[in-house]
Outer membrane protein assembly factor BamB
Amino acid sequence: MTERTEHDETGNGTPEPSKVHTFDLIDEVPGVSDAGGTDGAEGPDGGDGGGPDTVEPDAAADRADEPAPRAPGRVAPALTGARAAVGRTARRGGAAVRRRLPSTRRGKVLLVGSAVSVVVLAVAAGVLVDARLREQALLATPAGVRSLATKPTQLWSTDLENPIAATLVAMPGVLAIAGDAKVRGVDPASGEDLWTVDLEKDLSCGPTTHRGTGGPASGAPADPLVCVTSSGDGGERVQNVTVVEADGATQTRELDPAAQVMPAPGGGLIHFEPLGGEQEQRPVVVDKLGAPHLPKAFVGPDLTVRVEDAATGTERWSDTVAFGAPRPDSCLTYDETGAPVLDVAGALGWDLHGDVLEVQGCGVSAAFLLDGTRLDDPENADDPPADGVDTASFASLPDGGWVGPDTAVTGAAPRDVVHLPHGATVPLEGQALVPWATDGRDPGILLERVGVHAEARSTVEGDAGARLWSAPRLRATTLLARVSGTAVVLDEQGAVRGIDLGTGADRWTLDPEVLSFGDMAWAAESTIFGAYTDGDTLLLPVSADPSGSASGLRLLAVDLRDGALRWEIEQETPYTQLISVDGYLAQVTQEGVVGLG
């Protein structure tokens, strides 16, 4: 079955009719076939039209047209005999079936009713199978929730001594709560403690995604969980890495106390190690305008990026990022008085976006896939994220592949290049809009912002890059969700808008006043902290006061069909973390962690 969205002449989409996109809802219904045919002609008496050895005219004609054997032999007669035997068997089988068909009017009515019932049952079974596949695809995404049809209530809670410092990480079927010098594995549906691992107070567990800061919730569940801990008295620092499996089993080994590391997917551990150059901390000169200046002839260190197996320490890959001409602010930190300090190690930063790792520091910057593939051009100093500029300029796409800046275009507005999983590379005219939440289905469409308007391009193999539609009045800045043929975007005026993904036409608009943006529409993206969906409803955690003068959080549920506000929850707690694990929501509060459902 295919659902097709017709072009709306009144909407702001201006698609070409030949390029209206379609969405496959049911690819295949098990047990149902479009093929049809008959077993043979039926004689007037309901039989097979002749005796078992009768040669039908059509069959004789077919055989007359067959080519003769090239030379006398046993092969041709054998084939002829085999064909005749097969024909006789097929006709006898057809006759046997027809002799068992009802001959009365009532019997035929019952037979037709039975056949219809079988077809209906087969179609219903196919629909149920497709619905199950859709649910599985949805729950496999970081933003997938089992149901948002009604306002969720608190199902369970667990107290924490320091909840604000806690980290929630999704594992396969397990919610990991890292905090209070331990990691607890919790059943996300019931809150039951499955296991506990005692660690140190100073711990960092992951991999984690952009929880609490908006942006795409990308990445598969941590399998296993990697925790880096540090402790020490009297200036002697001890640093360990502990690998925690989904059943609570652990492995721990000691690290270099000075190592700069972060957890990575697949049980990996990423090391960032400056090598050579000047690394000593010291004050810097500030001019009359307050601008800091690096020492003359300053040469900073190169940076080695290495990924190893967290449990064993076995290296998976490594690369060296060469030191280049730095901007002063990429080499500085600030002391307790606010004075700038040259601090190469302290100024190093990194981000993990799904399958993309970016690192920026003093004169060094690079982007990698987690298999070690270098995404930026190490020979091109203008290739972002060069020199710490344009953080998150590379991104992982939810349907596979990645997007990065197009450095072949100079002197113009920034443009992206999309690298698709089937190998195609698509240069864009603007910048890609990566969805924060999806339903796990690939619609074969990528949205981009070109200047101040939005366009859509195909990502389907063989048609990749084709423009599907352009919406001149759609000034989308952020793609909050791409679900069930609807794109939910945030526009320049702070309104949340539902767009027909197939045509670009407007479906609905949620007024900025509903989100309490007021005259702060420009800050809308920084006050929406994520997006979650069950396929029919979109859940948006939104700051209760965008101005920041008061704390609080609002959970807003928006109907994806018409943009209606289904329900709202007001919370006094400031936003910390909201996470979906196996389709169940868990949230950090001022007292601990609660499960919502």
Q: What stands out?
A: DSSP finds four helices and 43 strands in the chain. The mean pLDDT is 81. The longest strand covers residues 268-275.
